[in-house]
Amino acid sequence: MNWDDLKIFLAVAREGSARAAAHKLGVHHSTVTRRIEALESTQNVRLFDRLPSGYALAIAGEELLQAVTRIEDEINGIELHILGQDAHLKGDIRVTLPDAMATDLLMPDLVRFMDAYPEVNLEILISYGLFSLTKREADVAIRITENPPEHLVGRKVACYHCATYASQGYLETHNLPAETTNAHWIGWDSPTPYPDWVRKSEFPDIPIRGRVNHPVAQLAAAKAGFGVARIPCFLGDPEPALQRVPPGESAPCQDVWLLTHKDLISTVRIQTFMNFMADAFHKKLPLLEGREVNE
Predict the structure, then answer these.
(1) Rounded distance, CA 168 to CA 180, Å?
(2) What is the rounded distance in angstroms from the CA atom of residue 38 to the CA atom of residue 36?
(3) d(CA 253, CA 262)
(4) pTM higher than the cut 0.85
(5) Residues 271, 147: one domain?
(6) What is the CATH number of the domain that holds 279?
(7) Are the beta carbons of 13 and 39 closer than 8 angstroms?
(8) Per residue in 112-154, pLDDT tens?
(9) Do 60 and 117 belong to one domain?
């Protein structure tokens, strides 16, 4: 029994199918099925029940999963401890962050960091989910969250504000804010016409019509005249095709955290990157907090 086989076993156990595990591991699905069959044959035990819906752990597989998970945690802990001793400003940094923050806010700062530290290589991973920093899926996470995981360390670098925006044409056609009869909000995920965020807005009587569950797509929809949008000020204020709907006040929306694993915080390149990005966020606070339109 070798670690490579156990990694394939873990992927199948977690993903529930050979194809999904193969995609995660970057191998062909036939390789996964062959290695699982070989592992079961070598150990003379059935680890998975093959179902129409995928792979389900058998009793022996559940026991093996517990043991292999402990081994994986120990190996990851050793790797993180070794990485934490790195005192040189070189090497890779895997950074995960939401796409809107990468494309519309931080990309110039990421480029400046690469220029300032030519021996450090940034790998940008776009995601709204929290990659596992413990398993080295990422080294640093820039996350929009009110409650960062307790096993991670870092700092809150901002609280971005949101405001209500519409295109100039939409404002003129619907005579906002004087008349709201024919106007409508662009919804997010809620199926109800008056979710909580609408009721708390300056236009609680405007219903939702249509839903767009992504901030960049919301921005495009508002520009095209889809409706009135509640979006982050760092997206809406720089956009010449949009205007804040009067009275145009912004309000706090979400906290932004800069996070890493506790065993990596002593790594010089991680420290340097986190300090660099914290400074970048500090310089962008007027934009993030919706104050740049008034300064």
Answers:
(1) 15
(2) 5
(3) 28
(4) no
(5) yes
(6) 3.40.190.290
(7) no
(8) 999 999 999 999 998 876 554 445 578 999 999 988 888 888 9
(9) no
